[in-house]
Amino acid sequence: MSGNKKRLVVIGGGAAGFFCAVNAARLHPSLEVTLLEKTSKLLSKVRVSGGGRCNVTHSCFSIPDMVRHYPRGGNFLKKAFHQFFTTDTIQWYSERGVKLKTEEDGRMFPVTNTSQTIIDCLLREANKYGVDIRMNSDVKSLKYEQEAFTLELSDLRMLTADYVVIACGGFAKLAQFGWLQQLGHTIAEPVPSLFTFNMPGNAITQLMGVSVPDAQVKITGSNLLAKGPLLITHWGMSGPAVLRLSAWGARQLATGNYQFAIIVNWLPDYNENTLREQFQQLRFDLAAQKIVNRNPFNLPQRLWQYLVEQSGIQEEKRWADVSAKEQNKLIANCCAQEFKVQGKTTFKEEFVTAGGIQLAEVDANTMQSKIVPHLYFAGEILDIDGITGGFNFQNAWTSGFIAAKAIAADVKPAI
Ligand SMILES: Cc1cc2nc3c(=O)[nH]c(=O)nc-3n(C[C@H](O)[C@H](O)[C@H](O)COP(=O)(O)OP(=O)(O)OC[C@H]3O[C@@H](n4cnc5c(N)ncnc54)[C@H](O)[C@@H]3O)c2cc1C
After folding, report:
1. 393, 395, 399, 401, best to mutate for ligand 1 pocket (most atoms within 8 Å of CB)
2. C-beta 35 within 6 A of ligand 1
3. Whose C-alpha in 118, 181, 330, 343 is 20 to 30 A from the C-alpha of 22?
């Protein structure tokens, strides 16, 4: 540390670490800001995020609505969003020449359609405010003694700091949190979130590529239920409805080793009773037409054929000739078809770890540890995770900014 200058070390060169470092350096120009990244790549998740386009945030401008998209951490973020919200993210990037656009489903991307725009912006800011970026710097341990931190890197280099922000993302295993537990912090056990459901050998996988704009999926024996687009894949099922369930059920499904059953309602505007009433009319209206060819619900034709087939209805059968038993089976398949799930696949477009630093030990107004003074957290290392749609990056921007602001306010003005 040179002279009276205070030094902040940010651990982690991802979205949260960068956002924190550049804002701290800007808000308090006399603060020496060093950013440590263990790999030789900066902002690597930002680069691949959103299929290479970076889904920066979500066009949601109400805090109560926004927090409903976080299976873990919503209450904590309710406070934090009052300081830095989606509107602030949009403005922050806009002031730096990065315009965002909103897609139909609310996801926001840079108008350039490339994550490189976000990376360039953050690197430009780091350069402008003199953030000292050090790659290949893997922090192994952290100690706080006599109002100063000592950081030890894996190559045995040592660093000192007055303030430390931990922004090293999610770790898959509890053991990887050991150095943070040594500081006295409690860790909510990490489990994956945002994954797709595997259904090995199930006939439904023959329909891979078929998607339904609106289906309802329920996990049996629980009250976990989601509605939305569903995609049939080579391995099983994906799409927003499935990913949402994987996030809300992340802990429960991990406990059961990803062996469970789901019930799909392919026609969520109906239940079995209302669909039965509808069938009476259809049998009358479409009497002479072959049931397999005449799909009255706008379901993808391949899916309709599959549902008819699974109900034991012969190809030649006309609507008028379907037996009561066959009709009941078709209604059940349309409204409550059961599938066995055996395993999961990580969703390659967006993946997060649920779990991390327990939120009760962090002040949501500053991101400061309640256990170690001058220690702060930002991003996915916290026990916060959102569903897909830009919610995870918003957590990174919000927590990174709040930590930066709190540190800048804490540092005495330079003499
Ligand atoms: C493929 C993919 C696509 C995604 N797409 C989206 C999306 O479009 N929208 C969205 O909202 N979310 C998306 N996410 C989730 C989002 O990327 C993360 O939630 C977000 O990047 C978390 O930011 P972070 O800075 O907390 O952690 P990270 O981005 O994981 O960054 C942490 C950094 O810390 C470094 N590090 C770790 N330990 C140490 C150490 N001991 N010393 C030094 N450095 C260390 C790591 O190498 C890493 O570079 C996606 C995730 C994935 C995997």
Report:
1. 393
2. no
3. 181
219 is a domain residue = yes
Binned at pLDDT 50, 70 and 90, residue 349 comes out as confident
Query: Is the residue at 415 inside a domain?
Result: no
CA distance 31 to 162: 10
How far is the centre of ligand 1, averaged over its atoms, from the C-alpha of 41 (Å)?
12
Question: Quick check: helix, strand or coil at residue 186?
Answer: coil
What angle in degrees, to the nearest 10, is found between the helix axes of 391-410 and 15-27?
30
Q: Is the sign of the CA dihedral 294, 297, 300, 305 positive or negative?
A: negative
CA of 21 relative to ligand 1 center, distance in Å: 15
Instruction: Categorize the per-residue pLDDT at 415 as very low, low, confident or very high, splitting at 50, 70 and 90.
Output: very low
Whether 413 has a pLDDT exceeding 90, the answer reads no
Ligand 1 contact via 179 beta carbon (within 6 Å): no
Split at pLDDT 50, 70, 90, the class of 294 is confident
Residues 315, 214 share a domain? yes
Are 200 and 331 within one domain?
A: yes
**Of all protein residues, whose CA lies closest to atom 20 belonging to ligand 1?**
393
Query: For residue range 22-67, what is the model confidence (pLDDT) as tens digits?
Result: 999 999 999 999 999 999 999 999 999 999 999 999 999 999 999 9
Q: How far is CA 123 from CA 6, 198, 356, 381, 384, in A?
A: 22, 39, 27, 22, 26
> How many domains does the chain contain in total?
2
Residues 6+ apart with CB under 8 A from 76: 359, 362, 364, 382, 384
* Of 244, 212, 256, 208, the residue nearest 230 (C-alpha): 212
- Sequence-distant (6+) residues with CB within 8 A of 56 are 89, 93, 100, 108, 109, 110, 118, 390, 393
**What's the gap in Å between 170 CA and the centre of ligand 1?**
7
Probe residue for ligand 1, chosen from 69, 180, 392, 399 as the CB with the greatest number of ligand atoms within 8 Å: 392
Instruction: Point out the ligand 1 atom lying closest to the alpha carbon of residue 137.
Output: 43
